[in-house]
Amino acid sequence: MGTLRVALVGFMGCGKSTVGPVLARRLGFEFVDLDLDIQKTAGRTIPEIFEQDGESSFRALESECLARCARRSHLVVAPGGGVVIVQANRRLLRTHFHVVYLRARPTTLAERLRGEAEHRPMLRGHPLEDRITRLLGERGAFYHEVASQIVDVDGKSPEAIAEEISNGLKST
């Protein structure tokens, strides 16, 4: 598996941060939650970065942290759901990672995100299902564009999803 890097992409709530560590353990790789990496780099929480500096500042930090991950190997990275809206990130993902799109139905995402919408800057202050549907509409094509593999996650355990991903890796 040489210098393999796996990136899990998909909308917030699809399970990237839950499946990532399970997959990393299974592959013997390191796991990086990109949002935690960004917070460590910035010394602030993501809501603070959004409030103080705006989304574009957050996206620049996100791109910088993703580029750092692209230079490493034996890594599973879980970026935030919006990482794909920046063209340079999509290029980096396609070039340097086996990208797995964890696809979930909007109803599944809404159920999972209901309790935490107020802590997520992109969801705050909007009717949840409407906001998810709109953002998915904006990002869906980008998730497909970067995906080396698509895994539908509705009703599956993190272990089952990790197994499906690792089986997909063996066939590439």
UniProtKB/TrEMBL annotation:
Its cofactor is Mg(2+). It comes from Alicyclobacillus acidocaldarius subsp. acidocaldarius (strain ATCC 27009 / DSM 446 / BCRC 14685 / JCM 5260 / KCTC 1825 / NBRC 15652 / NCIMB 11725 / NRRL B-14509 / 104-IA) (Bacillus acidocaldarius). GO terms for biological process: amino acid biosynthetic process; aromatic amino acid family biosynthetic process; chorismate biosynthetic process. GO terms for molecular function: ATP binding; magnesium ion binding; shikimate kinase activity. Pathway: Metabolic intermediate biosynthesis; chorismate biosynthesis; chorismate from D-erythrose 4-phosphate and phosphoenolpyruvate: step 5/7. The lineage of its organism: Bacteria, Bacillati, Bacillota, Bacilli, Bacillales. The gene is aroK. Belongs to the shikimate kinase family. One of its GO terms (cellular component) is cytosol. This is Shikimate kinase. Substrate binds at residues 35, 59, 81, 139. It catalyses: shikimate + ATP = 3-phosphoshikimate + ADP + H(+). Binds 1 Mg(2+) ion per subunit. It is found in: Cytoplasm. Its EC number is 2.7.1.71.
